[in-house]
Amino acid sequence: MTHATQALDQMRPPYPAEPGSGVYSNKLGMWVFLASDVMFFTALIGSYIVLRFGAPGEWARPGAVLNVPLTGLNTFLLICSSVSMVKAYAAIADGKKYFLRKVPGKRLQDGGLKFWLLITIICGAGFVSVQVVEYIKLVGHGFTPAGYREGSLLAEHAAADPIKYGLTVAGLYGSSFFTMTGFHGFHVTCGVISMLYLYFTKVLPEKYSPQDYRGIEVIGLYWHFVDLVWIILFTIVYLI
Amino acid sequence: MTAVAHTPTTAHHEPMSFWRKYIFSTDHKIIGIQFLFVSLFFLLVGGLLAMQIRWQLGFPGKPLPGGGILPETMVVNGVILPEYYVQLVSMHGTFMVFFAIMPLLVGVYANFLIPLKIGAHDMAFPRINMASFWLALLAGLVMTASFFVPNGPIRSGWTNYAPLAARPDLSGVTVGQMLWCVSIVVLGLSSVLGSLNYITTVINHRAPGMTWFRMPLSVWALFITAILGVLALPVLQGAAIMLLFDNVLGTHFFDPVAGGQALLWQHLFWFFGHPEVYILILPAMGMVSDIIANGSRKPIFGYHSMVFAIIGIAFLGWIVWGHHMFMSGMNPTLGSTFMVSTLLIAVPSAIKVFNWLGTMWRGNLRFHVPMLNAIGFVSMFTIGGLSGIFMAATPVDIPLHDTQFIVAHIHYVLFGGSLFALFAAITYWYPKMFGRMMSHRIGKVHFWLTFVFYNMTFFPMHIIGMGGQMRRIYDPTIYDFLKPQQPLNVFISYSAFALFAVQVLFAFNFLWSLKFGKKAPQNPWDDNGMEWSLPNPAPHGNWERTPNVYRGPYEFSAPEAGDKDFLPQFVKLPTDRDPVPAPLPATH
User: Fold this and answer.
1) Number of A:B CB contacts under 8 A?
2) CB of A207 less than 8 A from some CB of B
3) Which of B251, B266, B334 to mutate to test the interface with A (most CBs of A within 10 A)?
4) ipTM of the predicted structure?
5) Domain span including residue B295
6) Chain A contacts of B260, Cβ < 8 Å?
7) Which of A74, A90, B174, B215 has the greatest number of C-beta atoms within 10 Å?
8) Which of B185, B116, B128, B170 is nearest to B534 (CA)?
9) Strand locations in chain A, DSSP E?
């Protein structure tokens, strides 16, 4: 901690003093917020577990209704965005790097904050877009929050093979699927909007320095959390 | 590491327009005052609903005075309809818990007191703080709006048990139920934003010398409460969202017909609900501790045990929710587990009560209005706590469940407890908020009348509850076995009307003193807290220079104080050394 002069300016008027957490307030606040978000997803995921284990019938087989390969690709996209988030963080943490630049002796260029954050935004937006397309297709096939819509393609399939499509508990399936993935999508959307805001107000005007890049670190924490939640959701909703 | 991370500089603030200063303010004190006015308004609304409930219970079938202004869907020929009665009960609970007591304790006093008492210039995130207030107001307005939509507000009680709340065809409420859910989700967001602010502020923004164990108990309690808020409210949000989807999207979370589980709602609600109980009482306990030490002119008895009791209560509060569900059809084995954990909470609670008594014991008591109300808190909370033990024991709870005994208990802890503490706190910090004193004489009359009528209202509820009167019954005279109790119901109703009428004194005192109260001296209560080093009312940004803290908050009657009997935290004695400021955390 050798940047006392920069640290001085971080909380005006000078708020100071007793040794706190040793972590600046924005980051601490984000950790506390993530703790509360954990509780929120716990409520949704916990209810899903309780409902599924207490359900009067078998859940639909994995892949019967949902497009697992497509969402697997989407999961990959989100994980990639987490990687690019780390690269964005590293770019500004290692030194004031905003642009792509040549690295001597290497063929590839080394990206800067502007490049990697843009990649993250694109991946995040891509994830949400794929999810929206997925929702539209599912609803079109007849999979709704209330179950299989009567007279739809899925309802016909389910009537022919009730075990595979978990006909008896289709309502619960739809309820939990749309609520959990929907609120995750909402979180991703909020993250993308926040990153866009940072991109135009802080990153493009080059306001971050290796001494102070709080916004990037804080949004990074949020982004990795959202990514982690998705890995859990993908496993329990799509794969089992 | 550098030790001189900050040199105190003058906090500079330009003059601001009225709107910027009082309406869209980021100053924690103004936000606290905004919360105060809004939640006192909702307290009044909740009280008016309670009066209508008492009218119906005392005089079933008689026309409600002034009932003519209510629409036909609520009142016919002046008589309250059963549907409206259930709505009254539901909304009274909702308003009082979510929009009166909770914002009064947390919104007002966490905002107002935390920075002042720890020597900070403002909250860690002033703009998030402002958002928290406006979201709370929005939530309150959405909830109020549900009175004006077709079919009116919720009819399933403030707990919104499923499947009644989840199925519009059962409850007959459509829009009102959705508005309840939306309002609760918004309120939860407001609460989370507020709480993360309080937590961060307490951890990171304490003035030099304000170590953890020099913090006043009010700050400790508000800090622990904020942790409860951050972890409990999101669970309610999740549950409310599922309930909302059940109503709007046709999902089946809580609908057993389609495989959902009605009991799941109760588990989610009370998993939030029991920490919520402590959100509603811990800040009151903290502020009462400060006031009792001040009124007794003695250091608080057992400061550390008080802190650990708060932490203990907060922790145990997470593992007791099932005691609300003994009669719900939950596995009885779980019932015994929850019974044991619930009874355990009596231990830290008793520690606190004994410490308050130990503080007052042989103290040089000053019976100012806050002290009177604080003693009222201790005595009423004790009764409420003891009746709580009745219900914690499963065998006793089985006959008492869902009777007026429960109503008596909740009002002993929430009115007798939290609201008396709030009367104390409002009077105590009024000079800091508005620069004037509330009238002592009116305050004392108000306290004694409230205390008497309050007990006359709620104590008999224990008796009629044990006599079997149900908690939300519309007309107690329809059952022969309840008829002999009806005179007691009439007595309770008269007492309740008197209790409500007496609050006019408080409202008058509060509003009149804003303009005409006696100008407050800088330290009107001879208190030790950091806030009394500032002029009344405190300026924007609080201190010009970050203050130093030299000792704990309860140095009353200390020999070092000389001819005075108090030694404030900000006073530097010749023997005191300045605390060494800690370095600020790095921003990378």
Assistant:
1) 226
2) no
3) B251
4) 0.91
5) 26-561
6) 51, 171-172, 175
7) B215
8) B116
9) 101-102, 109-110, 143-144, 147-148
Domain count, chain B: 1
Task: Let me know if residue B290 belongs to a domain.
Answer: yes
Per-residue pLDDT tens digits for B432-474: 999 999 999 999 999 999 999 999 999 999 999 999 999 999 9
> Per-residue pLDDT tens for A27-66?
999 999 999 999 999 999 999 999 998 888 888 888 889 9
Chain A residue at shortest CA distance from B234: A40
CATH code of residue B272: 1.20.210.10
In a domain? residue B18: no
Asked whether residue B286 carries a pLDDT value surpassing 90, the answer given is yes
Domains and CATH numbers, chain A: 21-239 (1.20.120.80)
Structure tokens at B583: 């370095």
Q: Where are the alpha helices (DSSP H) in B16-167?
A: 18, 28-58, 82-94, 102, 111-118, 126-145
Judged by a CB distance cut-off of 8 A, whether residue A135 touches chain B is no
Q: What are phi and psi of B7, to 5 degrees?
A: -105, 125
- Nearest-Cα distance to chain B for A88, in Å, is 14
Residue B210 counted as domain residue: yes
Asked if A175 and B239 come within 8 Å (Cβ–Cβ), the reply is no
- Residue B423 Cα, gap to closest chain A Cα (Å): 31
In a domain, B575, yes or no: no
pTM over 0.90: yes
Of A33, A50, A69, A49, the C-alpha closest to A233 is A49
